Every structure is written in C-alpha cells, then in structure tokens.
Amino acid sequence: MSRKNHTMRNGMLIQKDKRFSQLKEKQKEKISSWIAEETMKYYEAHGKMSGKGQDDIILRNVYEQIEKAEIWLPFYELKKRYHSKKAHIQHKCLERAERQEKINSHA
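The structure corresponding to this sequence follows.
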C-alpha cells in the first residue's frame, strides 16, 4: 500500500507530513521568534498569559506569518512546538514585564 505524503502547491512538491526538525535552521529561528513575539503581544494586550482557548489565537497569527514566508509546516507541528516551548516563553514574558516595571518605578 503506497502512502502519498507529497502534493503539488504553487508548482512545488510539498511534503505534507514535514516535521519541525526537518526545517532549515533559519526557518526554525524565524518561527521561534514569531512564537515569542505573538505570545508577548498577547501578554502585553491582556495582562496575563494565554490559556488553552487563547493559544489558538497566537498560533493562527504565527501560522499566517509562516504561510507568508512560504515555509511549509503542518499546523499540528506548529502547535506541538508551541506547547513544548510555552513555559519557557511565558517565563521570558514575565521577566520582561518585571524589568519594565522596575524601569517605570525608577523614572
């Protein structure tokens, strides 16, 4: 039984089940920075970290950037990556907020 895991998209052969680890290093770095930026934007806008329902908002915004950059990655791989790094990103957001509060209180 053959398993087709490639499809043609915009004249390019695309692997449908690509994993995050198979991306080029620059692509991984871009995606990781977009995840961090969107998470920080959410935190700054709402004053709290995202919950399960709000994670999809962040992921959709990041996935739009991935598609604009023409990087092929299935959504479930992005979601898996986000959840594996979420605690680390949240910690960074809280540290950044604390530094900002210290700066504002000294001014």
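The mean pLDDT is 83.
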